[in-house]
C-alpha cells in the first residue's frame, strides 16, 4: 500500500445539503454540499477528509446526508456523526450510549462529535451517562471529536485516563481565545492535556485564534501554535474547517497557514500533522486514493480513482 503518512488528511470539515449560516447566500443548496469540498480537496492535494456532522439550522438530517456521502466516496470521506450536540433536543439526555450504538449500526461512521455548551464545566462527560457513552465508543472502536473549551479540559482529561484506548480530538486548537479566562491561562489548560497520550488537538481554526479574523497568515496567533507543538509534538491534526472557513480565507490559505507559515515545525512532524497522525488513528481505512474532477455544465463531476496496492 502507498505510504499513508505522506497523504494530507483534513481533520475537520463539514458538508450540508442547505447552507446553515446567515447572511443568506444566493446558492444555499450548493454552497455547503460535498461536491464543493471534494473539488477543493482535489485542487489542493488533500486526499481524505473527516466530515464533522452538525445538525444545525436547515440540516436536521445532516447525519444521514453525510452517511450517504461516506458511502458514495468511501476512499475520501470519513464520517464523525453528530451525537447530542448543544443544539440537539437530546443534549445530555439519558440514552446517549444507546443512540451512538444505533448510529454505528446504521451508518459507516469512524467517530462521533459532541459540542459542549460554553457555560458548562464539562462535568457531564464524567457522569454515569457520559462514561457510558465513552464506553460505547471504546467498544465500537470509535474516535471522539469534542468541541470543548479550556475550562472543560480537566473533565476531558478524566475521561481520557478512564478510556486510554479511545482517541479524543479537541477542536480548533482547544479554543484558547474563547474560554472563560485570559488566552494564556486558557492555553495552559489545553497544554495540561498533553499529559494524556490519547488526547490530540486539531490544528484548525486559525481565524478563531486571531485578533483580526481575516488577517492571513495569522502570525499574531502563532504563539499558540508554537506552544501546542512544543507540548503535543505531532499529536496535532491539521484541519480546514471548510466550508465555514470561507468567511475568513480560502481552502488553500487554511492549508498554507500551517504548511508554509508554521515553518518552526520540522518536516517530519509536518508530514505527521498534515495527515500521518490522523491516518494512524483512522487505521486501514486511510489508504491511498485520489479524485478525478471534470466539469459538466459548469459543475464539478467527481469520480474515484483507487490506487493499486504496492
Question: Proportion of β residues?
Answer: 15-25%
User: What's the level 1 CATH class?
Assistant: Alpha Beta
> How widely separated are the two ends?
5 Å
Helix-strand sequence: EHEHEHEHEHEHEHEHHEE
Describe the structure in your own words.
The structure is a single chain. The chain is α/β, with parallel strands linked by helices and 310 residues long. The chain has helices at 34-43, 62-72, 96-106, 128-140, 153-162, 183-192, 222-232, 251-259, 267-282, and strands spanning 9-13, 48-52, 77-82, 109-115, 143-147, 168-170, 199-203, 236-238, 289-296, 299-306. The chain has a single domain (4-306), classed as Metal-dependent hydrolases (TIM Barrel, Alpha-Beta Barrel), CATH 3.20.20.140. 33% of the residues lie in helices and 18% in strands. The strands form two sheets. Strands 1-2-3-4-5-6-7-8 form an eight-stranded parallel sheet, sandwiched between helices. A two-stranded antiparallel ribbon has the order 9-10. Strand 2, helix 2 and strand 3 form a beta-alpha-beta unit. The radius of gyration is 18 Å and the shape is globular.
Task: State the gist of this model.
The protein is α/β, with parallel strands linked by helices.
